[in-house]
Amino acid sequence: MRLSKKTDYALRVLFTLVEHHGRGPIPIRELARRNDVPKRFLEHIMLEMKARGWVDSSPGKQGGYVLAKEPARITMGEVIRQFDGVLAPIGCVSVAHYERCNQEAVCRFRRILLDARNYVARLMDRATLAMVFLGAPVQTREVFAQEFSAGDGI
Amino acid sequence: MRLSKKTDYALRVLFTLVEHHGRGPIPIRELARRNDVPKRFLEHIMLEMKARGWVDSSPGKQGGYVLAKEPARITMGEVIRQFDGVLAPIGCVSVAHYERCNQEAVCRFRRILLDARNYVARLMDRATLAMVFLGAPVQTREVFAQEFSAGDGI
DNA sequence: TAATCTACGACTAAATCAATCGTATTTCAT
DNA sequence: ATGAAATACGATTGATTTAGTCGTAGATTA
User: Fold this and answer.
1) Cβ contacts of residue B15 below 8 Å, gap of 6+?
2) How does DSSP classify residue A75?
3) What pTM, to 2 d.p., does this model score?
4) How many whole angstroms separate alpha carbon A76 and alpha carbon A128?
5) Chain B: nearest CA to A84, how far in angstroms?
6) How far apart are CA A9 and CA A81, in angstroms?
7) Residues of B with CB below 8 A from A139's CB?
8) Distance from A147 to chain B by nearest Cα, in Å?
């Protein structure tokens, strides 16, 4: 059930870039220092984020990284899926990477894992960097309760 | 965010034992076959569950494993914590295994991870084997919403 | 007394994680 | 021009975790 260091580091850095949005590039050295992330490790993470189009880079003096998308258009769910591969606790309740399980027909606890998966996925997919940065409530339980009682089956 | 095979296997077997509760021991061989779990691997899992007092064993012919506690007194949360160690997505929001993070004061996304952790922990800690076996609703979102608006801080 | 169980430590193969290193390439201030 | 400062990126590594297997000892009972 754990988040990898990569995801943790990526999120830390993204929020630093959100904070600095529109005020020029920040070099990896600085991103690493400010977020307590190993610099050489961060290089790979930044590359991956650039490939995803979340950040952009410029080399040379005065170079560094900037956010390439609006903070409201990147979600924590995307970041976690990028670096951890999957959000669901087990393959048989994953939407993005469903894996058939031959016990599925008789499994008693799949419902519960699906419940957990659904809550977390909704939460993370609504958590845009912009909202989280501002500390705005991402998902009130009231809203979630309404949606749920509207029914989403299994 | 993933459940280990050990936890998955342990849960499968526990529900088989719940189903058979009060009708004598089932040998590992049978538990393994019915739940599609490697038998030699399951031995270790059963030992660990015996140490926790969830199951009891008898050797010899007609031997095997039985549930040692009422199904209403074992929760999925306990099982997951036993085999996966922790329920929280990251150390800084774990109750059972809290780890200090020096970014905590400035971290923007801790709230969200805490929200996820709280929902999942509540869900799993309420999910007794008895209720899950019966397919009874473990945690209505309405109830959760009320509790939340009552306030639980960070 | 032999078949059938559990008990339990030793071992291992493979995957994943969390990096580090070397080096190439691009850019820009001077 | 040129050198300092930055990104680009593949190769490698060490540690840990995962997911088992194996051998054998010991208990029970038909």
Assistant:
1) A108, A109, B129, B132, B133
2) B
3) 0.91
4) 6
5) 8
6) 14
7) 115
8) 10
